[in-house]
Amino acid sequence: MAGRYHLLDPLGDGPAGTVWRARDELLDRFVTVKRLPPGCPFDAAHSDRVRAKAIREARVAIRLRHPHAVVVHDVFEQDITPYVVTEYQATRTLADLLERHGSFPADRVAALGAQLASALAAAHAGGILHRGIGPDRVLVTADGTAKIDGFGLGDGPFPAPEAAAGASPACPADVFSLGATLYFALEGRPPGTGVPPSAGGPVLDAVLALLRHEPAARPTMAEAERTLTGLAVARPLAELRARDTHARTRALVTGTVLVVALGTAVTAHAALRRLALRFTTQPQR
After folding, report:
1. Which of 201 and 281 is assigned the larger pLDDT?
2. Cβ contacts of 174 within 8 Å, gap of 6 or more
3. pTM for the model
4. Lower Cβ count inside 10 Å, N or C end of the chain?
5. 129-144 pLDDT, tens digit each
6. Pairing between strand 138-140 and 92-93?
């Protein structure tokens, strides 16, 4: 594709597009190639606008270089379909991790949020909006490093109230969508379901501040980064798997200890009974 990208294997397929692992034959490196949705097949004008917007915003995202943002290498069209080329890393989406392991501990959510907010704050400082933050656009490596993906794609799962009402997106809309993503990670469900949060404490308070209804009442992304950084404890993803294993192991050990204790008590009782019988049956002198 584009005279240099050789598709190797699919990595995923969803509303935001189809993704492959590929090799950049020109620079001899692995990359990710994402085919973006083409728009409405029955409305050529709409499809043209969608395609032009995707290409324009992908080119803007190329300017962003941050350790917690997926690097955009290239953008091109083939058969009037836009494609975006990004760095390749072995990662899993936050959505997949939450589905497999359930909600995250509060300090882990703070660490995740601090990393994402740092990248988004840098983007905002450079005049770049994300427009579609959600669990499926957060990538997490095995050592717990988070990277935000999908700049400019829009149509995220957690639009801010003003964006849902038709207002032009601005920085506070990204703040709200980040807050909703972190709330989902903390509670295992999106905000606004009517179910009170089960968690409590300063991390929940920080997340709820991002979800304030009025855009002007929300902190800036830079302020969110500072707050979350102060609450964060970085942990590798292996601890998520270890947490489930530890819970099962602890239950097994507890049960084993109880069985051993019960067996010991029974054995001791039987020994005492035999000893008592021996003394009571000995002849008197």
Report:
1. 201
2. 120, 124, 129, 130, 131, 133, 221
3. 0.79
4. C
5. 999 999 999 999 999 8
6. antiparallel
β-bridge partners, 146: 140
Side chain identity at 254, as an amino acid letter? T
Domain ranges of the chain: 5-87, 92-236, 238-285
What beta strand segments (E) does 40-198 contain? Answer: 72-78, 81-87, 92-93, 138-140, 146-148
Q: What is the CA radius of gyration of the chain?
A: 27
What superfamily in CATH does domain 92-236 come from?
A: Transferase(Phosphotransferase) domain 1 (1.10.510.10)
Structure tokens at 96: 């997949």
Identify which of 212, 220, 71 has the alpha carbon closest to the alpha carbon of residue 151. Answer: 71
Residue pLDDT, tens place only, 203-248: 999 999 999 999 999 999 999 999 999 999 766 656 655 555 554 4
N residues, the chain: 285
CA–CA gap between residue 72 and residue 275 (Å, rounded): 81
- Fold category of 5-87 in CATH: Phosphorylase Kinase; domain 1 (3.30.200)
Distance CA 51, CA 200 (A): 43
The tokens for 233 are: 């404890």
- Going by C-beta distance under 8 Å and a sequence separation of 6 or more, which residues neighbour residue 206? 110, 113, 224, 227, 228, 231
In this structure, are residues 98 and 184 in contact, taking their beta carbons and an 8 Å threshold?
Answer: yes
Where residue 127 falls (left for φ over 0; alpha for ψ -120 to 50; beta otherwise) is: left
- List phi, psi (to 5°) of 235: -140, 145
CA dist 207 and 199 (Å) reads 11
